[in-house]
Amino acid sequence: MTSIKKVRKAVMPVAGLGTRFLPATKAMPKEMLTVVDKPIIQYAVEEAVAAGIEEIIFVTGRGKAALENHFDEPYELAQVLNAKGKTAELEAVTNMLPSNVRLVYTRQGSPKGLGHAIGCAADIVGDEPFAVLLPDDIIYNAHSTPLKDMVNLYEETGKSVVLAEEVPTERLKNYGILDVAGAAITNGQTDVAGFVEKPAPEDAPSNLGVVGRYVLSPEHFKYLLQGNIGAGGEIQLTDAMAEVAKTEGYKGLLLDGERFDCGDKVGFQMANLFFAMQDDYIAPRLQPFLQELARAQSKKAS
User: Fold this and answer.
1) Which of 37, 95, 122, 295 has the most CB within a 10 Å radius?
2) DSSP state of 206
């Protein structure tokens, strides 16, 4: 029996223009917008590291230099902070990554969809399983790392894994939807027979939508690199997943925790408030303001 390779690499597509956040993203990558005191991209990187990932591949585009600079060693800043005795701040900017974690950058020449972006990393990933994290989705679980659970499930079964959550009927058309073909959900897991990208509610095979975390076998590249156009006139990762599900099988893991869609203005603000309320310094100072704001809004509505 062929041994199952460990999941060591992760791909993060970060080539988007962030048009929903203009003018803030006119000169700054969307992934560098901050949630409390860290940019969106750092949350994804920390999640990958916590899951045991050793190599992170950013698929970038034009105007992403600030993202690359963020993870560089800031020699001048470090000297200033050290001279001023600001040890906490120095720690925050100099020890962002363990020494065994490597960052790699490659470019997506033109915006042809998520599947195309993932395919741009094929030569770097090689013949290995790999994770995909969509940084727009910030996921929080106080007790575990969902991506780590997904990696463990892949390494136990040899089957690709997708994170999923229940989606309201009116929003099914915005998601890739799991076809579980009647399979039961046991311990938050289910077998997956296929996927449908952004179906009409009446055509959706379930109410389980794909969240922005994947652990994929290298077989996906075989389909992604064919360049077949799918929904929305783009190369869809979901189409490759559907093909792989037919031959290798697939697993779905239900999200246990909080998920914030920071590609949306409302989700971005929710993330800021949620993580601010986890901060021992901010929370007791912010809570009275939020309560007063809620009372004022309630009076306006009545």
Assistant:
1) 122
2) -
Domain assignment present for residue 29? The answer is yes
| Domain count for the chain | 1
Give the HSE-up count for residue 296: Cα atoms under 13 Å, Cβ half-sphere. Answer: 6
Residue 169: name the closest of 208, 137, 210, 195 by CA.
208
Range of the domain at 34: 9-263
3-state secondary structure 73-111: CCHHHHHHHHHCCCHHHHHHHHCCCCCCCEEEEEECCCC
pTM attached to this predicted model: 0.91
DSSP 8-state secondary structure symbol assigned to residue 165? E
Domain of 34, CATH number, reads 3.90.550.10
Pairing of strands 208-216, 160-166: antiparallel
Say if 4 falls within a structural domain.
no
